[in-house]
Amino acid sequence: MATLKGVIMLFVHRPTCIKRLLIIEDDPLTAFDNEHTLKHSGYEIVATVDSGEAAVPIIAAEPIDALVLDLGLAGHMTGREVARLARDRGIAVLLVTGQCPEDAADIAVACLGKPHSPSALIAALRAVETMTCKNQAPRKVNGLQTYWRPAAA
Predict the structure, then answer these.
(1) CA geometry: angle at 93 spanning 120 and 45, to 5°?
(2) Are β-strands 44-49 and 66-69 bridged in parallel, bridged antiparallel, or unpaired?
(3) Apex CA 38: angle with CA 98 and CA 43, to 5°?
(4) 40 torsion bin: left (phi>0), alpha (psi -120 to 50), beta (else)
(5) How far apart are CA 128 and CA 55, in angstroms?
(6) Run of H or E including 146
(7) Rounded to 5 degrees, what angle do the CA atoms 89, 52, 24 make?
(8) Please, are residues 39 and 26 in contact by the beta-carbon 8 Å criterion?
């Protein structure tokens, strides 16, 4: 952060191809923190919901670039089911969960372990952007597992 004659200037990362996010998190405080962090980092939050059942109609009706998805959700639908649905629609999935599952590479682009800092969440989404928008390997982010597979040229 820099100041110029009493004016605070924030150097905010401008999202590239990932701009519109759906946050799916069953813990209200974590959901609020994630939404606040991501909004202030230049992302548009389409919605924040706590269950797969609430996410499905939004995924069907709204253009979404990426999900920020916890695996443990309210309701009967699992986070894995939501991730597969999103993946099949070409939506990037960032899992944000306590323990990254062994099959994470099958359902997500990356997995960020909890607890994490706001800066780690932003860095994780930048890594997802690097992989999905630029087809490049991302920089290493503490607590983030990535499952980048280069697309055929």
Answers:
(1) 70
(2) unpaired
(3) 130
(4) alpha
(5) 20
(6) strand 144-146
(7) 85
(8) no
Residue that the structure tokens 């959901």 belong to? 31
61 neighbors 32 (Cβ within 8 angstroms): no
pTM: 0.85
DSSP code of 43? -
| pLDDT tens digits along 37-96 | 999 999 999 999 999 999 999 999 999 999 999 988 888 999 999 999 999 999 999 999
| Measured distance CA(82)–CA(57) in Å, rounded | 11
Candidates 87, 93, 144, 146; CA nearest to 121 is: 144
CA angle 6/9/13 to nearest 5° reads: 170
pLDDT digit string, tens, across residues 68-82: 999 888 889 999 999
Single-letter amino acid, residue 77: M
Q: In what order do the strands lie in the sheet with 66-69?
A: 44-49, 20-24, 66-69, 92-97, 110-113, 144-146
Dist CA 42 CA 78 (whole Å)? 29
In terms of phi and psi (left: phi > 0; alpha: psi -120 to 50; beta: otherwise), the region of 79 is: alpha
